[in-house]
Structure formats: structure tokens, C-alpha cells
Specification:
Layout lengths: L2 H4 L2 H23 L8 E2 L8 E2 L2 E4 L3 H14 L3 E4 L15 E4 L6 E5 L4 E5 L4 H8 L4 E3 L10 H6 L16 E7 L5 E5 L7 H4 L8 E11 L2 E10 L3 H10 L4 E8 L9 E9 L19 H13 L1 H17 L4 E3 H4 L4 H4 L11 E3 L9 E3 L2 E3 L4
Parallel strand pairs: 3-5, 4-5
Antiparallel strand pairs: 1-2, 4-16, 6-7, 7-11, 8-11, 9-10, 9-11, 12-14, 12-15, 13-14, 17-18
Helix pairs in contact: 2-8, 8-9
């Protein structure tokens, strides 16, 4: 009698589960690492570690002003870090000071009538969602994961799944900016307006963003639909069925990287208003647990490492999202996707690490008011 026949059905399931657990543990151990040397700094990619003078936790405005004055007096550069997810490790400067803004993370005000929220730049989108959800409000624009910091997101002028509200700059009402010379300026479309489009997407080159006022929108209930198609058909599909339908609020599309369908097949996932399909209150409890994190990480590693892993990942993804068609989900929950997966290695996901230094005026520098900033790229 063969081994397979000797195993009872229950034993087969147990053996398969144990194998999956063993593979998940192996994948975690192989891709994890000892926490970084606090003075050998890199980002989430760990591609380019840089030795810095020190890492300072940003806590108070006066402390940050004093820190920039010290850096100016000593001729040091200052890098601004959120969750350290800028790819490539190009955003730190050797022997400089890194200001970690993640502790600068208080929600200062929520105005439910004006639908605005004012937060310190180290606040994460998860914190905003937790606060806004209580009042039936939601974020307009952010990345798909909610563990990024607000300062990092607006420093790169990020976009997300929302196709109606544009990139981050459209939902920013104003912000306060700590300049390299110690001045704090309020920046909006009316006040110090020249800095508004420069700092939003400027990777911190124009100063340290202290706090931000964002416009919010109403939380909504969506019905999710997923359609597969040939890549060559996507342009017409998006123009005729997505952009032309105001009821579709959010949209995401993914291309296949499987060898047999490489960049020729794709699926599109739409979040359309679920009018008359259910009440918002029945679905607006925020999801706090992301299921299947370990298997998802294992599949991701197989997808990166092998062709058969890419094929399996694409087939499973396509089937999973297609079978989800008709699912009801709130806007806030749709913007909380796969956040635990990104937390599996240290403290992850934010954008926006940058550097600035006050220097004498010279060719190639950027002038803002009376202060000149060297671009340290």
C-alpha cells in the first residue's frame, strides 16, 4: 500500500497544513533581518545603507527649529524620514542627521462641518481613518496601504485608487513648513503660494513639513467588480466603462507577469457606488485584521523567484478577485488593503525621505524667498 493511500483524509489535510506552515516560516526567516544599526540607515529596500551622524526623533516644533540651527552652524545636512519606504536608498546623506518624524504624530483637529482634518506630519493614514470613520468621513486620496505617513505621502504627491480626486495635492488645504533658516511658514494656495506646488512633491527639499490640513470626503459603500481583458483592450475599456461612469469612484488594474501571458493579459477592479444594495452602517466597521498574511508573503516570494510561481500567483489573483465581484465594502475599508503584509519586515511603509541644507547662493541651487537650498540628490 502506498504512503498516499495509507494516509487518511484528515491526515492529508494536516500534512498539507504543516508543510505550508514550514514553508511560510522558512520564507520569513530567509527574508527577514536583524534590525538596522541606528546609525547605518537605509530604507525599506535595504539597497544602499548610509552611515549618518545620528538619528533624531522629531517630537516638538521648538526642538526641530533648534536642530536645524545646529545643523546649519555645523554645516551638516538634514534628511527627513517617515516610515522609510523610498526605494533605492538614495535619500540619506553621509554623516548627516536623520530626523525621524514618526513620533510627531498627533491629530490636531477634525472639523466635521468643513470636512477637514489637521494632523502632524508623522500621522499615518490609519490614524486618520480611525478618526474620520467615526463621523462618516473618509480620506480623498492616499496610497492603497494606510501605514504611510502623511508627510511622506504629500512629499511625493502620491496618488491611489481614487480616480476622481487626483493626486495628493488636490486634497491638501494648507501646511506649515519649517524652512532651513528656522522660519515657519504657513503655505496654501493663497499664502506663500509659490511654495505650495514645490513642497508638495518636493521630497522635503524645501523644508520640514510640520502639520497639514487635508480635505476629507464622505465615506461610501461600494460594490466591487473585477473584469479580465487583453492589455490592448484596456484603454478603450477605461475610457468607455470607467472614466465615463461617475458611479465608479475607485479603480485599480494589474498586468500579468506570468511567462505565458506576460503584459498581454490584465484584470481591472472597480469600486462603484452600491446604491440600494445595503446600508453604510452595516459595513462601516473598520477591518483590523488582514487574513492569510504568511501564505501571501510566501506566494509573493515564489512569484519573485520562479516562473511557475509567477504563473500560480497570477492565476490565483485573477480567480480570487473575479470571485469577489459583488462584494460590498466601504471606502475606508477599501483603502486599508494588505497593510499587515507590508508590516512583516520592521517598520514599513511611508514615502518621503529627503534632505536640505542652507548654502550660499550658487549655480544649480533652488531659491525660495531669501533662503537658498542645495539640492542633495
Amino acid at each position: 500500500m502506498g504512503v498516499e493511500k495509507a494516509l487518511k483524509p484528515g491526515m492529508k489535510k494536516t500534512a498539507a497544513l504543516l508543510l505550508l506552515v514550514a514553508l511560510s516560516i522558512y520564507s520569513f526567516v530567509r527574508t527577514s533581518a536583524v534590525d538596522q544599526d541606528p546609525y547605518l540607515v537605509t530604507d525599506y529596500s535595504r539597497l544602499h545603507p548610509v552611515k549618518v551622524e545620528r538619528v533624531v526623533a522629531g517630537k516638538e516644533e521648538a526642538q526641530l527649529v533648534k536642530l536645524l540651527k545646529e545643523a546649519k552652524d555645523k554645516g551638516l545636512t538634514v534628511s527627513i524620514a517617515g516610515q522609510r519606504h523610498s526605494q533605492g536608498g538614495h535619500t540619506y546623506y553621509k554623516d548627516g542627521i536623520v530626523v525621524d518624524m514618526t513620533a510627531y504624530n498627533r491629530i490636531l483637529n477634525l472639523d466635521t462641518e468643513r470636512k477637514t482634518i489637521t494632523v502632524q506630519s508623522g500621522v499615518t493614514w490609519e490614524q486618520i481613518q480611525d478618526k474620520a470613520n467615526r463621523y462618516g468621513l473618509a480620506v480623498k486620496t492616499m496610497q492603497s496601504q494606510n501605514t504611510f505617513t502623511v508627510g511622506g505621502s504629500i512629499s511625493i504627491n502620491a496618488h491611489g485608487r481614487d480616480i476622481r480626486n487626483g493626486s495628493m495635492i488636490k486634497s491638501v488645504e494648507s501646511f506649515r513648513l519649517l524652512m532651513a533658516d528656522g522660519q515657519v511658514k504657513t503655505v496654501s494656495r493663497e499664502e506663500n503660494a509659490e511654495l505650495f506646488p514645490l513642497a508638495l512633491g518636493g521630497y522635503g527639499l524645501f523644508g520640514i513639513i510640520l502639520d497639514v490640513t487635508l480635505s476629507l470626503t464622505d465615506d461610501e459603500l461600494y460594490s466591487v467588480t473585477t473584469e479580465t481583458m487583453a492589455t490592448e483592450d484596456y484603454k478603450a475599456y477605461f475610457q468607455q466603462k470607467v472614466a465615463a461612469d461617475p458611479g465608479i469612484r475607485m479603480h485599480i488594474a494589474r498586468l500579468s507577469v506570468a511567462p505565458d501571458s506576460y503584459l498581454t493579459e490584465m484584470f481591472a477592479k472597480n469600486y462603484g457606488l452600491a446604491e440600494g444594495e445595503g446600508s453604510l452602517q452595516a459595513y462601516n466597521k473598520l477591518s483590523m485584521r488582514e487574513p492569510w498574511v504568511a501564505p501571501g508573503k510566501l506566494l509573493f516570494q515564489l512569484n519573485r523567484s520562479t516562473d511557475w510561481g509567477k504563473t500560480m500567483m497570477w492565476d490565483l489573483q485573477t480567480r480570487f478577485f473575479t470571485e469577489q465581484s459583488g462584494e460590498l465594502i466601504t471606502r475606508n475599508n477599501a483603502m486599508r488593503a494588505a497593510w499587515k503584509f507590508r508590516l512583516s519586515e520592521r517598520r514599513t511603509v511611508s514615502a518621503g525621505v529627503s534632505k536640505l541644507r542652507a548654502v550660499p547662493a550658487k549655480e544649480g541651487a533652488v531659491r525660495s524667498g531669501r533662503t537658498v537650498y542645495e539640492l542633495l540628490l
